[in-house]
């Protein structure tokens, strides 16, 4: 017996609901190998509650599980299965607070525009739960992300049906990006020579300085960057693209990542809103300021705040906003039936989810008439926009991709130690006046500085040397294991990448790369190389930085598999443990909405099944547990059977959903354990269960199906009642009885 432990994260939305059906199965099977499975709460509501213990009764207090998990990443035996969680925008945080308050929790309101020192402290306190609060804490290793062999085989044999052809008559779709004044063009980068501590300060034109960040420790040999987004150049860019879209009859769309880039991107989003609706917003600027309307939270926030006004004044402003649409290009729609546009809410336009769908849908997005139309996709910063334009041009030349023939583009991502932009939140500032933002070391030397104008966005990023060294090692190991070309996507014309290229070239010298195809290419060239190979059915490893890791591990899986939730995501932690991520949760809110409305949960837990396999393999390797190895192998066999037999959840009510899928993975896993010959104890234990599950298949099917077709009450969205969820997600008495025998 292994005496090992798997830590299963309690998160949000559909993956959280699905865990109530799946976890009893996982616990029942793994205890046969002496493996404990425990949950840790990293949900948005859980993080909020953990942050305000002094305001809660003893029976309301929760542990700060996220911080505890962060400490455990330093333990070589740590084994975490991480499900998708909400990277909260301000509107999502506010909705969570309201729900908790309604449930009797004394959580304070979030101060959007703090006026007092107390409110500023409170805003800073809430900042730790906003945006990508979870991933930087847990991702103490680099990323190895690829489709499991069984998943890719199934995807080729039964290709998804969501691909739409690129028009033979030609497509006008394109990506619009800035040519100057962006982060890419302004970036400066250095490699730190010695360990030191720096401060970030703003120096005004009058010579007066203000400390923005008092103390930032730097390690020897880490890469430090500073870049600025010019607000004037950004607004000029938006206006230019709005005019182009109007002239060419293109849908206008914006693609940012306001969740992960929780400081910079909401501001960039807000400028897009204010430029597009400027006639109405400038006319009523004083009134909107008085009622606290914040364009950084989207047009939805403006419309919501209008409720504070007298009916006549509200109607006047609403009419002026509607009049804007007569003078501006049509906006891409998020939900045309509800009139929700691309500029409605910042967390609706997550670039790594939205741009792959543009490619999948033949270069089009939905307009207000619910018809697909060519789009001008605005991605302001050049750092990564150009790779999407390369995909657009490839499809315009060669047509749509064929999932039945496509190769794969797996990813080795530089992610450890809050690498690159995704670790920049606490070093991003909006300039309050013209001047200079500079980074000054303990000896008073200026390491980096950037001139800024009022409203400009200053951003500083760090990349630790140990993370780069491990990233190179992981890339070489994956290239050798798969005998696949490994391409580092790095641009020598970008300041940060030049520093990283020097490190990559140095650390490649530590490895035997004879017989391996390991190269460095500019991102556009690397994309062209990868697209050429996947069209020929060949595989490639994209070795990328943190942001491109995020973007590409949605782009290629959505094209290849129909969803990024089916990817295998392994994070070998730097200290020897393992973090096993279960896919993307971008569609999770829609799944919950359907579940609450009609009792059907279409979330596919395949990502969880796939993540559990390497989790068990790690236990087998570290504890020499033959039972854990058998559980891993038989689960892998069960996943193949699950796919071959088409047991993925249906999208339609009164058809098999996530709960049926859980039943079938249970059946196939039990069958595989009953059929294996490596462990007689496991064989004897699971043979009766496999037999009973098979004999009761039709009964269980009907019991699960009977739970659909009517609304479901779970007592909340962000902080639901677990008793109600358990009842809703485990509605089959027969299945529950059989699982209890374990």
Explain what you see:
The protein is of the alpha/beta class. The chain has 3 domains: 5-140 and 573-740, no CATH class; 174-183 and 231-403, no CATH class; 191-225 and 411-445 and 458-464, no CATH class. 45% of the residues lie in helices and 17% in strands. The protein is built from 28 helices and 24 strands. The strands form 5 sheets. A 10-stranded mixed sheet has the order 2-1-3-24-23-4-15-22-20-21, sandwiched between helices. Strands 5, 10, 13 and 14 form a 4-stranded mixed sheet that branches. The longest helix is centred in the last third of the chain and has 19 residues, at 626-644. The chain starts with a strand and ends with a helix. The model has no long low-confidence stretch (mean pLDDT 95).
Look at the structure and give the mean pLDDT: 95
**Beta-strand content bin:** 15-25%
What is the first-to-last residue Cα distance? 16 Å
* Large-scale geometry: globular
Strand order of the largest sheet: 2-1-3-24-23-4-15-22-20-21
**Segments where pLDDT lies below 50 for 5+ residues?**
none
Instruction: List the domain count as a whole number.
Output: 3
**Considering DSSP H and I runs of 4 or more, what fraction of the residues is helical?**
40-55%
Count of DSSP H/I helices? 28
How many E strands? 24
Oligomer: single chain
Q: How is the main sheet built?
A: 10 strands, mixed
The computed structural class is alpha/beta
Cα gyration radius (Å) = 26 Å
Key words describing this protein structure:
10-stranded mixed β-sheet, 742 residues, 28 helices, alpha/beta, 24 strands, 45% helix
